[in-house]
Structures are given as structure tokens and as C-alpha cells.
Amino acid sequence: MPGMKMRRENSIKIQRNFEYILNNLVNCDGLVDYLFSTEVLDYEQQTTIEETRKGKPRVKKLLEILMTECGDCYDAFLEALREKKLEEMANLIDSDPGRNEVKRERPITRSQRAKVEKGEMQEDHFNIWNSEQDFLVTEFKSHLGDLITKFFSQMIIDSDDKEKIRREIKDNYNVGGATRLVEILGERGEHVLPRIVKVLKPTYNKIANRLEDRLAELKLDILNNERFPIQEQVEYE
């Protein structure tokens, strides 16, 4: 109900994840529109949020209004996050209040660290990866937390990589974090690109299919070159 505070136990869940939300929910405009369309926010509240400076200030204003002016809208807020494909954020906010971030992210073991391959992609795969960098950053920045979790669980990145990405998020928001993730993935072994595609499926098929199409084109070019090799010109005196 507008004008009423969120229930204390729910408000505390948002409060203890306040900094995490500010760092990861860089653009909340779509979320605001969704909350307005579902009548969680009224027109005056929506206008107040949209008139606030973009980035962290706007996200902070949204959280303040949800916690103090919209009644017990906690479940609606989580539903909105999931609707906007921010399920990992919703799950983290709704997790056990007694568990801190260190416990949520179990450190990688020495045996696991050994499985994280380091090294450059093979040249033709890296050319594909490098040419798609702008597209990848644009797509990754909206789902950064979930992608980090997926690549970490499949031993493509490790704890050190995650810390590097977090520092970029802190300094440059999700665009910086996404750019750093793309750079790191390009240095995760000669044959990492097919592994990346596999991790992206089926949740991020738009990205996976685009990379898969590029790999298919590469394979076709290789086959054509094998069938019809370029003949060297021979000069005759």
C-alpha cells in the first residue's frame, strides 16, 4: 500500500544487500517501468525516480521508495527482478540473512584452480572473439552476476578473475566488469570458445548462437580451403 513502509524483515534483506544492488543494478529504468505497470509504483513515485540522476543515485532512490513508501512490496520487487532476467540478484537478496557473501561464494580449491586453463585462444577463435567484443560487452553487462557464476562453476574463471571483475564493477559499473570478463575469457585456453558457447546455452542463446554461427563459418572456410587450395603462382623465365 502506498505511503507505508515495507515489513522490517523484508526491508533488512534489501538493506544488507544494498551495496551489492547499487553496484550491479546499474540501469534500473526497465525495472521502474515494470513496477509502475504492475502498480507497485504510482505516477508521482515513478517521476521522482526518473528525475534522479542515472546510475547509482537512481537505483538508490528506487530502493528508498520501495522500502519506505510502497508497503510490503518485497515479493513484487523480487518478481520484477526475475522478470528482467536478474534472477541471481533476486535469489541473493532473498537468501538466508545469516549467510554473508563469503559463505555464499565458497573459495575455489587448489585442485579446482588447476582445472582453470590459462593461455591465449587459438588465433582464428580469438579473431572471432575480438571482433564480437562490443556485442559481447553489451550483452554481458545486463547479466553479469549470473554469467560470472556460470563461468566460475565450469572452471573457466577462478576467484582471482572474479575479484578483478568486481574491481572493475566498483570503478566503472557493469560495463567495466563486462569488458574485463570478455578480456579474461579470451585468455582461458586454446580451445575455450566452444566451452563458452556450451556454458551460455540455453539461457543466453542469442549470444551462443551468434558465436556458434561464426564458428560454423570458420569451419566451412577451412573445409573449402582444404578442398580448393590456393595455387601458388609460378614465374617462368
Features:
237 residues; mainly alpha; 15 helices
Shape: elongated
Largest sheet: none
Q: Share of helix among residues?
A: 55-70%
| Mean pLDDT figure | 83
Regions with pLDDT < 50 over 5+ consecutive residues? 96-114
Number of E-type strands: 0
> With helices defined by DSSP (H or I, 4 residues minimum), what is the helix count?
15
Rounded to the nearest angstrom, the distance between the terminal CA atoms is 93 Å
**Topology order in helix (H) and strand (E) letters:** HHHHHHHHHHHHHHH
- CA-atom Rg in angstroms: 22 Å
Q: Give me the secondary-structure category.
A: mainly alpha
* Beta-strand percentage range: under 5%
Quick gist of this model?
Residues 6-96 form the CARD domain. With 237 residues, this protein is mostly helical. Helix content is 67%, strand content 0%.
Q: What does this protein structure show overall?
A:
The longest helix is centred in the C-terminal third of the chain and has 27 residues, at 159-185. The protein has helices at residues 8-16, 18-24, 29-37, 43-50, 56-68, 74-83, 87-93, 101-104, 110-115, 123-131, 133-140, 144-153, 159-185, 192-200, 205-227. It is mainly alpha-helical and 237 residues long. Helix content is 67%, strand content 0%. It contains 15 helices and no strands. The protein starts with 7 loop residues before the first helix and ends in a 10-residue tail after the last helix. It is elongated. Helix 4 packs antiparallel against helix 5 (56-68) and helix 11 packs across helix 13.
